[in-house]
Every structure is written in C-alpha cells, then in structure tokens.
Amino acid sequence: MKQMKFWTNLKYLEQGINTNKIVNFQNGNVTGERRGSERTRAGKSCTRKMVQSASLGIVATPLSSVLCGPCVDYFGRKIMVQCYYLVCALGFALIASANSVYQIYAGRLICSLGIGFEVAAIVYIAEVSTVRMRSVLLSLTYSVLYGGGTLFAYAVGLSLPWNLGSAVFALVCLILFGYESFVPESPSYYYKKGDTKKAIVAFTQLGRSEDQIAQEIKVLEERKTETEQKVDWRTFIHPTVWRPFLIIAFFHCLQALMGLWDELYYTVDLVTELDSAYDPFEVSFILTLSRFLVASTAGVYFTTRVSRKVAAAASSFSMAVALLVVAVYEKRYELTAKWERPYPLVPIVGLVGAVMASGAGMFFLPMLMSGEVFPLRVRGTMSGAVFFVGTGSMFLFLKLHVFLVTTLGVPGIYTMWTTACFVAGFFAVFVLTETHGKELHEIEDSYRSKKHRSTDIERTKF
User: How far apart are CA 4 and CA 130, in angstroms?
Assistant: First the structure.
C-alpha cells in the first residue's frame, strides 16, 4: 500500500478540527457564561437562562444543515466548507466585540448556523478517503478531536476571557478559509458534474497512484448512469435513499434520547441534580477528561478495528448498565439528604461510566455514518437531511431537559435514558447498517434487493 502525501493527511486532520471546533468552543461558552453569572441566580429566571444558553448554540443548526445539503451537491464540498469558516468567523467576531448579552446571543445564533455546514466536511472526508483511511480519519474527527476540543473548551471557558477566546477563534476561521483555497475538491463531485479530467487531477493531488486512480474511475464509471440521472421526487423513494435515511435518522434520535447531549451541555447541572457532596465543576471536568481519554483510545479502536454494529451495541449496553446503577441509587435514596446518603461516589461513578461508554461509540457513530450511506447523486442533500433530524432531536431534548427533570424527577430521567440505551443496543445488533471496511458503492448496494445488486464492480481496497 502506497502512503498518501503528508500534506493530504494534514488536510484530513485540519478538516476534523474544523468540523468540531465550533461545537466544542460553544460548550466552553456555555460553561463559562453559566459559571460566571447564571449559577448565581435562583428560581425560574435561572432555569430559563440555562435552557436559552444551552439551546442557542444549536438553535439554527437544523435549518442550516437541511439547506446546506443541496448546496453541497450543487456548488461542491470545498466551497461549502469555506462558507462554514466565514459564517463562524462572523459569529465569533460578533461575540468578541459584544457590548451586551444580546450581541452574544446573536453571535451564538450565527455560529449555530455555521454548525449546519458540518455536512460538507463529513461528505468530503468520506469521499476523498480510501476505504481503510476513511474509518481512521472519521474516527480521529469524531473521537479524538471532538473529545479533545470539548476538553480544550472547558479549559478556555474556565481560564480565558470569553471575548479574547472568541477573537482568536474568529481569526483562526479566517486563516483556515484562506487555507481551504489550496485544498483539492472532492474527485467524486467533479465526476458527478461530468469533469473527469479535474477528477483525475484531484485524485493525483490526494496522493493516489495511477493504478488507484484507474480503479476509482472504474467504480465511478459503473455508477455513471445512476449519477447522471435527473434528481426528482422518484429519486428519494429509491431503496438506496429512503432506507439509509430512516435507519440513520432513527439512530440519531436514539442518540439524543439516551441523554448524550444532556451529558455534554448540562454536565454541571447533572452533577448538581445528583445531590452529590462533590464540587460539580470538578466532577464535570473529570467527565469531560474521561470522555476524551476513552474516545482517544477505545473510541479509535472500535471505529477502526471493530464493526459498526459491535461498536454501537457495546457502547449502548455499557451505557445502559452504568445509567441503571444511577437510576436505582437515586430512586433508593431520593428522599435522603445528600450528607446522609451512603456511598456518595456511586452515582458519580455511574455517570462517569456512562460518559466513558459513550466515548467508545455512540457519541460519534451516528454522525460518522451519515456521510457513508447515501448514493453520490444525493449524498450532500440526504446527509443534510439526516443531520437535520440529528440536530433537531438534539435541540428538542435540550429544550425539554429541565421539563423532564421536573416532571420525571432525577430517577425518572435516568430510567428513560437507560431504556433508550437498551433499545439502541438491540437496534445496533438487528437493524443498523454495517459500513466498516466497505467501499461506498458496496454500502449503497446493501440497500438494494439482491437481484439488483452490483456483481461486476471490483472491490478497491488500497
């Protein structure tokens, strides 16, 4: 196997950092803002501000993702990544220069628009990578870099002034916008537009050998008839489109229902709600550090060496056991004062265990798989649509968090998350599509009936 060019691998890593930077820094904004002011307020006013603060970071993401998808197909992957940089630079610049809380809210709203453009980076990485490199690069993006970005955001939120940090990130976005101009477009996009020569040049820039390029072009040629078909309403009722959409969309919904985003956005509040005698901020940092360490080790292993089904099932069932321990403990000592509760470490260990288990798979698998399962002609559009479902469900459950805690109580919400984890585990075993170690065209074929599946396309692993 010939090694890809160093600068190309660097490009992949940069794309991963870019994809996750905004989300994670906004988590830092939430932490810092609430630590500095909102935690000192009491009553309903604090609750309303807490929900506002957590949800503003993604409130416009569903809309931008569903709009970004068709633009990725029409204008290209590269230009939409550049739009991502510009939108986020504008949002951070507004936050950095803010003189009132409303300007901060406006900046966060603009940044939430930028997050929807993540779709472009997901599709880009899936298309430019070989089958072996795809799992590695997507794993680095959604395990190591996401966890590392979140950890870094907590450090920024707790140590640096928010306006200075925002100014730095605005500058970085502008620098990366310029850098993106020197990055090759996805060869698959060029071929889809009928420009085979540019596709070959892009493959060359990505470090492919002549033999590898010939094999890649052969696979694209085999799909030429379908790729060139006009996209209309009949396109979206084809099994290779609606089947993966329903599977991955439900996978995203399960992820939100399992409490993964609550654990990320409401970390401090979850620890506080456990009536623990330990400092919520210290425990929150431990939770974030644990997620990063597991994602950087077990997460990378499960993503690159283990099937998607096994990784998702193992992560889900492990989370279920850990959350069940918390639910049982909280129910047993629900009416007991926190200073009188025995074994106060039990719920903390259970919560840490759940966060660590999520880092082994469920925290990033739904997003990682969104760019792998759709056919080329609608890959951007459908990735945007499924991202709309994912971010929409995330936004919904973040808005409902306080209501659910108030209505169900702490034992009730942990029981709900436990149940969702068990459902997700069985869903992974019996329904989830296997994409690990497969070419994109092989994944597409898995959704066809057997008599319509390709039998003459050579498998191209490099």
Answer: 10
